[in-house]
Amino acid sequence: MGNALKIARIGGIDVQVHWSFVLILFYGAYTFGQGARDVVAGALYGVVIILLLFLCVVLHEFGHAFTAKYFGVKVPNITLLPIGGLAQLERMPRKPGQEFLIAIAGPAVNFVLALLLLPLALLAISMSARGGASFSYFGLMRAAQSMSLTGLLLSLAVMNLTLGFFNLLPAFPMDGGRILRALLALRLRYVRATRVAVLVGRGMAILFVMWGIFGGGIHGALFLLIAFFVYVGGRGELEAVEGRYILNDFSARQAANKDAHVLYTSEAVSRAVEYIMTTYQGDFPVYDLGHNLVGVLTRPRLVETLRMQGQDGRVVDVMIPRALVPETSGDTPLADVWEKMMASGSRVIIVQDQERFLGLITLDDISELIQVMGAAKEREDVIAGGPGGRSDSSVAGAHSIADIN
To answer: Can you tell me the mean pLDDT for 273-296?
Structure first.
């Protein structure tokens, strides 16, 4: 979402628009313009109705966001895409009941909007009855297709109903899929509930693909995009849940690299290159001459320095100052450490007990631990009869917790 443009900030939440959002405006202009007598007027009407529809999408996302904030979950931003909105949550709540309420809040907003819009549309039809409008099925269809206030209100009401019901489909990580997982988690262990929800979601993604292929046209392309997001989003969140399940058994003290090579502020980056040539270490704690930890030199910083300055660059000039590197205590569960690293966007974290430095933990360390211990954990689960614990319901990483409309 790096190419998203911030357009507003409401309730401490940034509302931003991805550059690809313009595609849905062209879609609206094409759809309403191609069959209109006045192509330009039809295209403009299409753009207006799409913009109003996405205003409803924003309200849908704020339904999720404000419910999440009520339960103490931070929501950094809401992003608009051609297929809908993404409400980015830092984590999901610990209790399945809270996840259920957060998930259902979005469709509930759409149903409320439909209930508000339908009477207004019917009132507009009633007022124009002298002009030939009627409350019959065909009369309502004609009214909905007309470029008028009545048609606009009726179309928005139907679209909100469609959005509400569509998001209740059990296509994890869409709202319906999250509702399904929350209900399953009341009976099943959390990891297993997630696996079942993801499996059902993949089945829905296959149906979306079939609809996209045989539906044809631009409508079909939208369903293909939704299927892609459902599949990728579900897989990403399942990996995050399984990762946290594995990491909960370890503390930061156990994972910290206590024997790592260190660099000093007076040295050139060539020393780091020497260590990389002979070891697997890529991130280094940096000490001053008094042997005080003052920063960290990460692999990306090292690569950038070698590209721009060569091996003569000084460590003190390219390191990340200690104040900018997140820290944690040795007793912190590694799952919480991972969550903190993902939230801060840092690939390293400092582990210490009071004033004593214990070592660094990197994302590479955590990834390797998940892969190695995950295999052992999978074997234990087969013997024990099933993975996960009901209380382990927080997911590391804001990027894996997003709502797709």
So the answer is: 91
